[in-house]
Amino acid sequence: MPIRALLVLLVFLNLGVAAWALLGPERTRPAAATPAAAREVPELPLAPRLAKAAPVGPAEATGAGNGEAKPAPASEAKAAEPAPAPAATAASAPESAPTCLRLGPYADEAAARAALAAARGQVLRGQVQQQAAAAPAAYTVSMPPQADREQALALAQRIKDAGFDDLLVVNTGEQANAIALGRYRSLAAAERRQQSLRDKGFAARLTPAGEAAAAPWWLAVAVRDADAAQALAALAGASQSRKLDCAAVR
């Protein structure tokens, strides 16, 4: 047989085998064993479930297909977060403590009140105060004036006989015929002298030496700061300005 004819025959044989393999009856294969529970539960169709599912946007479908979770939009995230509590109102800075002064002295109450009225717009609070009267410079112990000089001399002799040698009979003036028994700078010393005479039966008297100085008037004021205090003394016409405890200013 020629070689060409042999080759053609082999080609046709191969084509026939291939056609039979493709178009012939399928081989019977044994069904795979399935669990009893799986055979009893019928398989549900997918179409109804797909129909009820919510539509998925393109971007969400892409993310789901890739197996990645897509974060919620920024606007939705902000809405979900709880609103921050309102910030507490910042405490106002404490004001500086006021400066308190005693301004004066003034000759009388009227002058002090006029000065306070002139400075009223520059002070936080203020008042007029009178300083305590100055203590006398000295105190005298004496017997009151007698009816005449003879009686004054007789009384002076009796006081000497009682042991008091430091005395003087006043000759002239308003206190003529009085008996001076001592002059003391200390009130306590004058009171001791007076009491010793009374213990001997003499009604000695104790009087201040001269008139006490008049009590001056002052302003007690509170101002905002030291700068205002410097200007206030000139405005109120005060010759002196002294620091003062603010508890004394009402």
Automatic annotation (TrEMBL):
UniProt-annotated stretches for the region Disordered: 52-94
Domain SPOR: 93-171
Pfam families xref list: SPOR (PF05036)
Natural source organism: Pseudoxanthomonas composti
UniProt-recorded name of the protein: SPOR domain-containing protein
Molecular function GO terms recorded: peptidoglycan binding
PROSITE patterns recorded: SPOR
Gene3D superfamilies: Sporulation related repeat
Biased composition (Low complexity): 68-94
